[in-house]
């Protein structure tokens, strides 16, 4: 997959979400009480990034910029053997993801994963995993 890397496009993550919260002056009470946070999406995505790294996945993402139809971005792309799996991370229960729909229409992957506040679920090629269970993706690395 390294053939397709664009080394001029990248995302930055802090390898400790607690330190990120401290730097952003977000209290643990706000996180635990599920208060409305400006940076909740950033925190959740950062958390998933650190978990994926712990499991041995490379941190890759997919983006497309198109003047006619706008831009799209999938938060993470992981590789399991020869399969490429897009992962979308949502901070709440709102599961809408135009970018993931664009990716699905374009590449038709066997599996799509959404990590969110929702419970486990499966519909067609979409698998939903709750945020607290991100560690379950480790089974993809081991299969």
In words, what does this structure look like?
This protein is an alpha/beta fold. The chain is 29% helix and 27% strand. A hairpin with a 2-residue loop joins β2 (70-80) and β3 (83-89). The longest helix is centred in the first third of the chain and has 15 residues, at 40-54. The mean pLDDT is 85.
| Anisotropy-based shape | globular
Major sheet size, sense and barrel closure? 6 strands, mixed
Number of helices: 5
Spatial order of strands in the largest sheet: 1-2-3-4-6-5
Task: Please bin the fraction of helical residues.
Answer: 25-40%
Elements, N to C (H/E): HHHEEEHEEEH
Structural class: alpha/beta
Radius of gyration: 15 Å
C-alpha termini separation: 18 Å
How many E-type strands?
A: 6
Mean pLDDT: 85
- Portion in beta strands: 25-35%
Q: Low-confidence parts lasting 5 or more residues at pLDDT below 50?
A: none
């Amino acid at each position: 997959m390294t053939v397709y890397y664009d080394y001029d496009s990248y995302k930055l993550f802090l390898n400790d979400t607690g330190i990120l919260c401290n730097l952003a002056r977000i209290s643990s009470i706000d996180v635990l009480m599920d208060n409305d946070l400006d940076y909740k999406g950033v925190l959740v995505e950062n958390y998933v990034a650190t978990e994926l790294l712990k499991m041995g996945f490379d941190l890759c993402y997919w983006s497309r910029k198109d003047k006619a139809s706008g831009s799209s971005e999938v938060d993470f792309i992981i590789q399991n053997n020869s399969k490429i799996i897009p992962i979308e991370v949502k901070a709440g229960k709102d599961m809408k993801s135009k970018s993931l729909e664009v990716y699905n229409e374009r590449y038709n992957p066997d599996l799509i994963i959404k990590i969110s506040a929702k419970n486990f679920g499966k519909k067609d090629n979409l698998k939903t995993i709750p945020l607290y269970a991100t560690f379950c993706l480790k089974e993809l690395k081991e299969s």
